[in-house]
Design brief:
The chain is an alpha+beta fold and 975 residues long.
Length: 975
């Protein structure tokens, strides 16, 4: 029997209580042949070389001063664009790699709003294609051989041959959108550099994933390289999205201001630094090619939609995924899940899905569940019960596959064996298996280029589903993460399983003692206790470090970092990007760049794509697990086009007010990137939350597309029912969210079919208003709803701007009272704890459904219509209806609602029918009490008009809509 070392920690602590010191013990786990403790990997296995990032090095070589640039020759027009040969204009500089002497320039126009510029080696040696170009199967091209007449384009390409420079110009205004004038193109096998001029005080957005305000600074560096890291500020995170849009404002002849936006996308996922300076932007990558797509806009919404259509329209979500989800790392057994589900129902807080972190797994191994704490019989009964209640289950799934100990016959893991037989794993350059380390111990990593990987992946998910009836998959650690540098397990597998080279939360020396800002003011007694615990911990850790003795759980270890197989410096490229991991080493906390794929490509060229390819493989697998249904996948790592398969959560954020505030620009960024199914770990993941922060955050996240509460192992529990104030705040916000579900679902339909956004920045809706350029503490949900949350500790009010000019109307969600636009000024709004200000934009019509405990129950409830008239007395809205889950719909309906001249007209297209009746119609902005209300030709008697809010409410419509609110066209008038 094998002994597993665990830590006992409190599963729940009252708000503000300090965590007690965990007691270390040993517990026997099922294994019939041996008794031994799990060894802990030494901490130095995850320590790479200490590199100096080029951006930090004052002595770094300046390629612009050293390199000669290029000259364009053989310039010729061709169908849909032009081509040219670029030749090096002087001696090779070889500053951060080997110069490519001759390049091909290929310019392609089409459609009207799009222009593509590709610069690639003129003659790519066989076998080196993946160095420079990413397969279209992996990353969609924005222009696919379109033969488009350039004279019809909204953009113009202008070329200077010697020295080679180019610019992209908006024809209608002759505005230069992108220009390399005055700079040189540097193109080497491991380094690209090009620069564009920018206007002063430019407004630039995107270039993610990053924790930052929505508008990027004008003296600012961005690094893109997928990595496993706890949401640091202004550093590279889990995804790579080399796309930005720039928003400029011009003064017209009449003195008014008009906004113009354009977008730029670099189809290159190698590690890269992007330097934003006062009047320029410089792109540096450690490989690939120049593959730029320009979008003409001219509004931010048009730029974003064009980009999303180019990289891949987002998947249509199942209706149930828009409900509320609960998770935590620390639901230790099925009883914990059961208790949480029952508690949510007891407190009457809607719960759509319960999630499991790695607790459910058998020794953290994929496609398994712990036979003791998550035994199949008990687990299956639990899942049957929640499914019968219309609820769902989503488990986490990690990227690495455990390697069984060859010296332990009881350490069998058939899923690994099946993958080995399918030749499904990454290799070292010498052909041996690349063996890193993640949660279960020494692990291997799927190779998505191998022909047998997809079938093995699908078969594994199908087999596991027969045991555990999951409803979606949560992909984590897929940057791809490894806890050691190099193939550290190659000579150490006989020591498997091993503990990670760091303590887990709650283990001795790693207590969760962080609390939100201001906790010492609101919870002074508890804060003092925590401060004492922190001082004790720090003293103990310092004494341990000073002792310099070997750790009793250390193990003999043989590291293995194999050399590269080509002329490039693979593990340590000559240009060091400003990578967030220690020493800027690309192999720290990741599979090393020299890991080899079956098609000959290296992780160096594929790293940031790994998670995206895993998502695609999982999406295809779930199509087999759930034939005909839309797969539900949430992933941590993303790239352009990931939204076609999955949503994203914001990763391992912190229980801090700052992180709650930053969740808004983070969400808006993923709207730009075409991944609308986005949310964050509500109430925070790392650290302990408190009542006030959790109450505010539960209300804010109620208006994010993906709504989930999740926190770290051994932190205090933060389910919404833990505090009365949080429970009340959650019920209030959830009632609004569930009422708005048909509206949100319709927004997703538009996103899926046109690339429109779900969450929106105010500047996207009002592109001519320069005062909105930096607004990211409030946001729009579609065109109709504005949310202005409280984001500061201790505040009982917030402030917001109401855009739109003197004729715009905004209606309070709760009181229906109207207010006019604030002309760029911030307005104070009362917002005591438990209240989140929400407003309806005049000119919109919302089809609403009575909320219930689950989305399935809500879909069976009566409807309401809310008409928010604009200053002219008009409004518009639409509604998309289908079965809420099928990948291909047999029947749908699209409902159009239009109000004008005191008449609400409802028309429909499609064959989808439902029997839910209409309960009421509420019309906001009716200045006078009507004399008569009619539904079709029938006069109605149940209605009221409130003079103070100018609200007309018509009720008792169930009788005239017995066949269903949307079964036929109808009219309602008020005269």
């Amino acid at each position: 029997m094998r002994i597993v070392q665990i830590t006992i920690a409190s599963a729940f602590l009252c708000a503000g209580a300090a965590a007690a010191q965990g007691a270390t013990t040993t517990t026997a786990a099922a294994s019939p042949t041996s008794w031994r403790s799990i060894p802990t990997l030494p901490s130095d296995v995850n320590r790479g070389r200490k590199l100096l990032a080029n951006l930090e090095d004052p002595n770094a070589k300046d390629a612009q001063k050293i390199c000669p640039g290029y000259t364009a020759i053989n310039v010729r027009n061709c169908p849909g664009g032009l081509s040219a040969r670029l030749v090096l204009a002087g001696a090779n500089c070889n500053v951060y790699g080997t110069d490519i002497d001759q390049l091909d320039l290929r310019v392609s126009f089409g459609p009207e709003s799009r222009l593509n510029v590709r610069i690639l080696p003129a003659e790519i040696p066989e076998g080196q294609e993946s160095w420079y170009d990413t397969k279209e199967d992996y990353l969609t091209r924005t222009v696919k051989g379109v033969h488009f007449n350039p004279t019809d384009s909204e953009l113009d390409f202008r070329l200077n041959s010697s020295p080679f420079e180019f610019s992209v110009v908006r024809k209608s205004t002759d505005d230069v959108l992108f220009s390399t004038k005055g700079s040189k193109l540097v193109f080497e096998n491991q380094f690209l550099e090009f620069r564009t001029e920018l206007p002063e005080r430019y407004n630039l957005y995107g270039l993610g994933e990053v924790m930052h305000s929505i508008r990027l600074g004008n003296t600012y560096n961005r690094t893109l390289y997928a990595t496993d890291v706890n949401d640091p500020l202004d550093e590279n995170l889990y995804g790579s999205h080399p796309f930005y849009y720039e928003h400029r404002y011009a003064t017209l002849k009449d003195g008014s201001r008009k906004g113009y936006a354009h977008g730029v996308y670099l189809r290159n996922l190698h590690g890269q630094d992007i330097l934003l300076r006062e009047k320029s932007l410089t792109w540096r990558t450690i490989g690939g090619m120049v593959d730029l797509t320009f979008y003409s806009g001219p509004t931010p919404a048009e730029v974003i939609a064009d980009h999303v259509r180019a990289v891949g329209l987002p998947a249509m979500q199942q209706y149930w995924t828009l409900g509320f989800h609960q998770c935590r790392w620390g639901y230790h057994n099925v009883s914990d899940l059961k208790d949480v589900v029952e508690a949510y129902r007891d407190f009457n807080i809607p719960l759509e899905a319960i999630w499991s972190d790695i607790d459910y797994m058998d020794q953290y191994r994929d496609w398994t569940n712990d036979p003791v704490t998550y035994g199949l019989k008990t687990f299956s009964a639990f899942l049957d019960k929640i499914h019968a209640d219309g609820q769902h289950f989503v488990p986490i799934f990690d990227a690495a596959i455990y390697v069984p100990n060859p010296n332990n016959a009881s350490d069998a893991y058939p899923y690994y064996d099946a993958g080995l037989a399918a030749d499904a794993y990454l290799k070292n350059p010498d052909g041996s298996l690349y063996v890193g380390a993640v949660w279960p111990g020494f692990t291997v990593f799927p190779d998505w280029s191998s022909p047998g990987t997809q079938d093995w992946w699908t078969d594994s998910f199908q087999k596991w589903y027969k045991e555990v009836a999951y409803d979606g998959i949560w992909l984590d650690m897929n940057e791809v993460s490894s806890f050691c540098v190099g193939s550290c397990g190659s000579k150490n597998i006989t020591q498997n399983p091993v503990h990670p080279p760091f303590s887990l939360p709650g283990e001795r020396g790693n207590l969760i003692l962080d609390y939100p800002e201001g906790f010492n003011n609101t919870n002074a007694t508890e804060a003092a206790g925590v401060a004492a615990e922190i001082e004790t911990r720090n003293s103990a850790n310092a004494a341990k470090a000073a002792s310099a003795g070997p750790s009793p759980t250390s193990m003999p270890f043989v590291s293995q970092v194999l050399p590269g197989v080509d002329v490039r410096a693979i593990n340590y490229p000559p240009y060091a990007i400003d990578h967030v991991q220690n020493g800027h080493d690309l192999a720290v906390h990741a599979v090393s760049p020299n890991a080899t794929h079956s098609d000959g490509s290296l992780e160096y060229d594929m790293h940031s794509l790994w998670g995206h390819l895993e998502i695609g493989a999982t999406y295809k697998s779930l199509l087999k697990v759930f034939p005909g249904k839309r797969p539900f996948v949430i992933s941590r790592s993303t790239v352009p086009g990931t939204g076609a398969w999955a949503g994203h959560w914001g990763g391992d954020n912190a229980s801090k007010w700052l992180y709650m505030a930053l969740s808004i620009p983070q969400a808006l960024s993923f709207s730009m990137f075409g991944i609308p199914m986005f949310g964050v770990d509500t109430c925070g993941f790392n650290g302990n939350t408190d009542m006030e922060l959790c109450a505010r955050w539960m209300q804010l996240s109620a208006f994010f597309p993906f709504y989930r509460n999740h926190n770290v192992l051994s932190a205090i529990s933060q389910e919404a029912y833990r505090w009365a104030a949080v429970a009340d705040a959650s019920r209030t916000a959830m009632a609004i969210r569930y009422t708005l579900l048909p509206y949100m679902y319709t927004l997703f339909h538009h996103a899926h079919t046109t690339g429109a956004t779900v969450m929106r920045a105010l500047s996207w809706e009002y592109p001519n208003d320069e005062s909105l350029a930096e607004i990211d503490r409030q946001f729009m949900l579609g065109p109709a709803i504005m949310v202005a949350p409280v984001l500061d500790q201790g505040a009982n009010y917030t402030n917001a701007t109401f855009p739109g000019g003197e004729n715009e109307r905004w209606y309070d969600w709760y009181t229906h009272e109207a207010r006019n636009a604030s002309e760029g000024k911030l307005v104070d709004l009362k917002a005591p704890l438990g209240h989140i200000p929400v407003f309806i934009r005049g000119g919109n019509i919302l089809a609403l459904q009575h909320p219930a405990y689950t989305t399935a129950e809500s879909r069976k409830n009566p409807w309401d219509v809310l008409v928010a008239l604009d200053s002219e007395g008009d409004a518009y809205g639409d509604l998309y209806l289908d079965d809420g889950e099928s990948l291909v719909q047999e029947k749908t309906a699209f409902i159009t609602l239009e109000a004008t001249n005191s008449l609400l007209n409802v028309s429909r297209k499609g064959q989808w029918t439902s029997t839910e009746t209409l309960s009421s119609v509420t019309i906001l902005g009716v200045p006078k009490k009507p004399n008569q209300i009619t539904f079709g030709k029938a006069k109605l008697g149940k209605w009221s008009w409130r003079e103070n809010s100018q609200t007309l409410e018509v009720t008792g419509l169930e009788g005239v809509t017995k066949g269903g609110a949307w079964s036929k066209e109808w009219e309602l008038s008020w005269k």
